[in-house]
Amino acid sequence: MLGLPAQSKGKWGSPVTDQGIGARLLRKEDERYMRGRGQFVGDIRLAGMQEVAFVRSPLAHARIKGVRIPPAHRGRVFIAQDLTGVSAIRADTSLPGFKSSLQPVLAADKVRYVGELVALCIAPTRAEAEDVVGEIALDLDPLPVVADMLQARKPGAPMVHEHWGDNLYLTSAIDVDFEAVKAKAAVSVTKELRTSRQVMSPIEGRGVVAQWHSRLGQLIVHTSTQQPHIVRSGLAECLGLDEGQIRVVAPDVGGGFGYKGILLPEEIALAWATRKVGAPLRWIEDRRENLTANANCREHHYILSAYADAEGRLLALDCEATVDSGAYSAYPFSACLEAGQIASILPGVYDFPHYRCRAYSVATNKPPILPYRGVARTGVCFALEVTLDALARKLGSEPNHVRFKSLVRPEQMPFDNIAKRHFDSGDYPEALRRAIEAIGFAGVRERQRRGEPDGRRVGIGFAMYSEQAGHGTSVYAAWGIPFVPGHEAALARFTPDGGLELRIGAHSHGQGLETTLSQVAHSILGVPHERIRLVHGDTATTPYSTGTWGSRCMIMAGGAVAAACDELARRVLAIAAKLLQAKPEEVRLVAGEVVGPAGRIAVADVARTWYRRPQDLPGDVDPGGLEVTAGYKAKRDTGTFSYAAHAAVVAIDPETGELEIMDYVVVEDAGVLVNPMIADGQIIGGMAQGVGTALYEEMRFDAQGQPLAATLSDYLLPGPTEVPEVRIEHMETPSPYTRFGQKGLGEGGAIAPPAAITNAVNDALQGLGAELLVSPITPRRIVEAIARTRPPPQAPAAVESPPGPDGHGLPGA
Amino acid sequence: MKPVAFAYARPASVGEAAQMLAAEPGAKVLAGGQTLGPILNLRLAQPALLIDIARIPELAAVGEDADGATIGATVTHAAIEDGRVPDPTGGFLARVARGIAYRAVRTRGTIGGSLAHADPAADWLSCLSALGTQVYITGATGTRTLELDTFVRGTMETALAKDELLTAVRIPRFSPRARFGFHKICRKAGEFAEAIGVVAYDPESAIYRAVAGATNGRPLVLALRAGVAAKPFTVAEAEHMLQSMRYAGDAYERQLHAAALRRASELAFAP
Lengths: 813, 271
Ligand SMILES: Cc1cc2nc3c(=O)[nH]c(=O)nc-3n(C[C@H](O)[C@H](O)[C@H](O)COP(=O)(O)OP(=O)(O)OC[C@H]3O[C@@H](n4cnc5c(N)ncnc54)[C@H](O)[C@@H]3O)c2cc1C
What we know:
The complex is a heterodimer.
Chain A: H1 30-34, E1 50-56, E2 62-68, E3 77-79, E4 89-90, E5 102-103, E6 110-111, E7 117-123, H2 126-135, E8 137-142, H3 149-152, E9 168-176, H4 181-184, E10 187-195, E11 198-199, E12 207-213, E13 218-223, H5 228-239, E14 246-249, H6 265-277, E15 281-284, H7 287-294, E16 296-297, E17 300-308, E18 314-324, H8 339-345, E19 354-362, H9 377-395, H10 399-406, E20 415-416, E21 422-423, H11 428-439, H12 441-450, E22 457-469, H13 473-479, E23 488-494, E24 500-504, H14 513-525, E25 532-536, H15 553-579, E26 588-590, E27 593-596, E28 599-602, H16 603-612, E29 627-632, E30 640-652, E31 659-669, H17 676-696, E32 727-731, H18 753-765, E33 774-775, H19 779-788
Parallel strand pairs in A: 1-15, 10-33, 13-14, 18-19, 24-25, 31-32
Antiparallel strand pairs in A: 1-7, 2-6, 2-8, 3-7, 4-5, 9-19, 10-17, 11-16, 12-13, 12-15, 17-18, 20-21, 22-30, 23-24, 23-29, 26-27, 27-28, 30-31
Chain B: E1 7-9, H1 14-23, E2 27-30, H2 36-41, E3 49-52, E4 62-65, E5 68-72, H3 77-81, H4 92-98, H5 103-108, H6 111-117, H7 123-129, E6 134-139, E7 142-147, H8 148-151, E8 152-154, E9 157-158, E10 165-172, E11 179-185, E12 195-202, E13 207-213, E14 220-223, H9 235-244, H10 251-268
Parallel strand pairs in B: 1-3, 2-3
Antiparallel strand pairs in B: 4-5, 5-10, 6-7, 6-10, 8-9, 11-12, 12-13, 13-14
The complex binds flavin-adenine dinucleotide (FAD).
């Protein structure tokens, strides 16, 4: 149709060139990142700019009786009562039974978590702003604190939002003929599992610069966000401004992961205050704010039962899940994004007939829970895959026995699962077979039989998941949160010198969209990669988009860029055909040229003709010219399901609990890969975060809701030496629903590692009778799990000889 | 977070620095800043004056004689790691230095700063406790010398008076037959220790010490009786030593410290 060359067709019917879809191109954006030339919010300096620091609540739950501001600081300290005309953040879902929380921009009557904003302080420098913060006295009347989600569910627990009558945002439930399994099952296991609260740790924290532009009559907010257009809508709602009065710019963003997919009270506070004081204002989140108050995520509790027949085929799951959603429903994804999805995600990649799940989104006096790479799936995959291994152990079989008996088979695709999720394509058993092969399963079992000379215990574990991506209107309309994604738009236009400019409303901050969308455009138009520019991150210059989340961009922005380029190609061909004096059906677009029966013309020359020599154009030329905005939606918008099998080999020192990941394999299928190198990068980066969840990251709170880590020496993140070199194999089963058969894959790397590593740990400790059901698996937890299997120790032997002046004896020495 | 405003001084001599300390009650010494920097940023310390001692020549001096070596307070971990200063242990100091944090921290962090801060998890504190180290101190009114065990009083607590600086450490010379083992258990590379075990053994001077470090207080030093076999400790021996040191910790911590001691002894007495 577009006259693409017939030779060397790729999977989606167009050529794999060295710059198009399928090419392992280096990332364009790395040119500036690797040279330290990126420009982040923290790099912005505006004339007259002042710095902001916040007074945050020191208590988890208290009534605010007063805020004492020294007279000297009047005019540069603002509290809730000052914010006239500003509404609280409201992130409701339309799910039946949801209880709404209003998150005040600055706390007014009550504080509900440690770190909640109470006052905004302005000074020429951040240090001076912090000096002002130190002089503000809060008069707080402490209230009983509920810091534990299981406590919070109990009657009589202190209430975070009194008018609710309990602490439940939402209870979600599903029951598919569950009771019937009891007559059929031969075995069952029940496990109680827990994942810890974590903190998202992008290298760049949040940052906001707000200014009021008097000529444009516009609020301009530079903010480190994944969703500039959604932030604009949210700001307009809370500030009572027209959206046209607001421009949101996301410059370079140093990692998002979900943490930058949130409307922040800080953004609203600065946006309000910049008008009030008449100066640009900047707030740069520091690591302490990030850790203790802002970036909380992932805290799940499960009681999960799995039932199987005697052959090991999974018959049913029965789950009670609780998620600690914290004090407020965060905008736009709501307090229920995690728990509300558990019931639909839990069945995983398996086909089984009976199912029951109840999931509770619980309010506590802790920071609001935010979406983090993998959203809910990391916890769900952990709970399910660890329980499946326990089930296999009970059956006396190898863990993958249950998986192979229960996986959805390729011939069932597309497949509607028990929770009505529609799996588009794939071969799950093949991924598992390849992972078993690649990790050398038989060799590891043999090594375990031999034992380790250093006394360590080796274990091997597997985990599988599927990752819904790019799901759209149908899914989100049912969910009913503040936005529902519709068609994704992209603008494509030729510049007069034949370069190509692409504009998207999503944002690229590590995903490599500046490269991959260029590859998409190149595949269609043949414009050289270096002549293609991607513009993104500015509501003033890009089409509306719900932004970068849910692994959607390669599907949605990729599809939209392709749609715009398709239309551009049509227009280029029409013009070129006239210029070549050929019939439209006689010309083809080949490697940046339009080729006709008796001549050829470079696409760049067509562009030049359109802009610079319109006198040469045919009279009936499409007046729209060489600039196109096109919308795109997948053929079916229930999402693509990429999936993977992860395999881990670990060695554990039972004496110290130290753990080494000796080998790690990922076999994944994300459909057609636009740039396999970037896909690898996504997996490796996600994997590092998965290792953090599995082994290191834990934000603990005491009973009074005080966070127990304030720096990165208390909140451990894996570093390069802790993340194993992962071996990746790709399968490429196209999605039937997307433009090129591509699927979203941004989150998967972070989903399965806790499950695979925990299964490997439990495999290693099996002989000792110890089992770990909590993440992260710390050395202490390993040692204590092993200790619990031993008979209680006798009282410690008395010190044989009291210390004398000449030292001590050794027994038997 | 950012520090509070403070004045900054760079005295030319130890004497001048001590005078400044004595004159300004809100003063604090700055050496490599690898500990003090974060503390200032978190506003855990809010000094009125920072006295930067990093460029005082006498504090960077090193010396060596038949009995041992003197290492100035501002000698960096990296200098020791690189063997740029005398090492009376024949290479043990360099090995320990290499395990402190990572190179960027070692390039600035100083041995004196580490001891003066007296974080129980610090590597030098445990290592030097096993070696019979002395600490040289200068105050506004004079100098004194303390054994390291007396210098360190507890968690982040030392015998330094308000107007005193730690100027150098004195480490005795060990014979070529001496054996050392240092084992640190920590969650990840560059992280502070959860447990440290140190063993120092010199048959010629009849020194045989075991140290449990990264405890909840100062390092626990056990002088082992002459005649105790110079061979790796058994689990029971390591546990018994901890008891003799009156180590207080829960079961997990005890197990970790026993393992650290045992592994230090294995390193010391590896064939
Ligand atoms: C990321 C990171 C990881 C680290 N990991 C480790 C580790 O694994 N093991 C380890 O042992 N250490 C570790 N450290 C600490 C590091 O070794 C520091 O260098 C050391 O603790 C302090 O030395 P400094 O010269 O930086 O002292 P500074 O930070 O300048 O000062 C520390 C304290 O000592 C006082 N002080 C300094 N010098 C003197 C003096 N001569 N007389 C009197 N008072 C003085 C200061 O007033 C201050 O109170 C780490 C540090 C960082 C930042």
